[in-house]
Please model this.
Amino acid sequence: MEFLNPQFWTFVGVVAGVYGLLALALYVQFSMAGLPNFGHVAFMALAAYTMALLVIRAHVPLAWAGLAGIAAAVALGFLLGVPSLRLRADYLAIATVAGSEMIRYLSMNLSFTGGPVGSVGMLGPTELAKYTTSWDPFIEGITGTLRSLLGDLASNDFSMLCLAWAVLLLFLLLLRRLEKSPWGRVMKSIREDEEAAASLGKNVYAFKLQALVLGGILGGLAGILWALEIAVFSPNDFQPTLTFYAYLILILGGMNRIWAIPIGAVLFGVLYSGTRFLGFYPLSLVDSGARAYLRLLIVGVVLVVLMAVRPEGMFGKRQELLLEK
Amino acid sequence: MGSLLLQLVYNGLVVGAILALTGLGVTLVFGIQRVANFAHGDYLTFGAYVAFLVDVTWSGNLVVAAVGAVIATAALAVGLHLVLLRPLRGRGLVALSLITVGLGLVLRNALFLIEGPQPRQYAFDQAAVIDLGFIRVAPGELWAGMAALVAVPAVAAMLARAPIGKAMRAVADNRDLAEIAGVDTERIGLYVWMLAGGLAGLGGTMLALVQGIFDPNLGFNVLFLILTGVVLGGIGNAFGALLAGLVLGLVMEVSTWPPFFGGVPTQYQPVVGFIVLILLLMFRPQGLLGKARVL
Model:
């Protein structure tokens, strides 16, 4: 029975880990600095594309290519910040979506990015391109080690699960420290009242830029982990809806509760992938191909109902509700 | 070469009219409710499918179909306003916008479930070419062009002259001030949603006509272009949205003209639109017609 298949749930766990990382990036930008970035998926896409292109076309070692991917995401953070940080929140939200769509359109139509087929087509239509050649032995090494400890549970997906969640939890702890530091307090004061923070001599612009860049690093990491997990990606893996899934994770747990992000990520993973098992009556009337639409429909309903009924999330405090922005 | 340019200008004006009419709805709704309606693209799709049902399964008349789309989408927009968005007013920009994201997901995927992913087209000869003397257009483009010729001046005149249009602009510009001046903002809010929905229905039908074939992603695919037009015109600025939509449509189409740097490939049209947006935000962040104080 598929419902109990551990491999499937391992994959759900990887999805939750990667999306959780994206949600953490939004936490820095939105929950801490108050910047509504609606195009965060661009950081993922740019990092994944940079890494894959460097490996495939320039034969750069994977580790360096990955770092370059993150560097590209950081550069995008700066690039985005220069024109848009002086904008009002609503303009910023739309400008960021426009930016992310631009990257998706470009990657879909340029020939060196593989066009609509994505990473496989990076060397042109005649040759299958692959960027995971040096990654596969690495992850299999981890799997081998884990197998000697855990037996049958170990698989490449399971290794990826451990890796993604290790990265997520590491950055979560780091950011929790940062949030409680003077730096985090300045961030929150900027979120609440820019003018007040500026009047105390804080460089509002620089702090916002730092939040964008930090969020860019996390988004880039998420993109690289996701690219390594799925081994082949195309522009459509970086649809704008992805950003909203990350927002959903943030909201599920609680907009201002950093430790609730993993819980939100797991809930989202279950919600997103678990709907595959809606095979009982009356949903069995919907054929399995159409159930993908049903799944997204349910995600939409949850988003609407949750925002309407409990906008602070499950663990949030209504008093510190940043959604009023 | 000249006739190609004319052709592109015609296409640009039609696409621009679609962006202008739908962007007007988004910008007025924003002014009234402070929500960036991310479901607006799916309102367009809804309208296109209503027109499809009326045209193909019932009347076979495209004008009746377009009117049906306008009425049904206006009803949908007003209904969602009354049931969902009005009670939640004051929740803040991001919360409300996320609600509309969810709403869009529901609408889009409901259409996928009901109508299926297969491409649809209206019941007329798609391959026909009509010679207008100086340009040649497909029948869908001609219908959409005629709709634009009627709708854009009518809406602009309504906004400029009619008391209701002035009231809409006043509320969109400054809700509190309009209320103090005696404008019934609740009633105007209802009319704004009605107008926005109706124009989305019309715009969706026009878009489907121009494209020839469409599926439930029709409106979502242009949502970000519509939002780009709204920002270009200055959020909340009605005439700005109309002007920016037309400019955006023209720029995107004419940029493919070969003498213009060899012509931008068609598939990069949206990128051209977004580049225009980013340039504008860098040098004139309040939009084409926006006032600097808004920022």
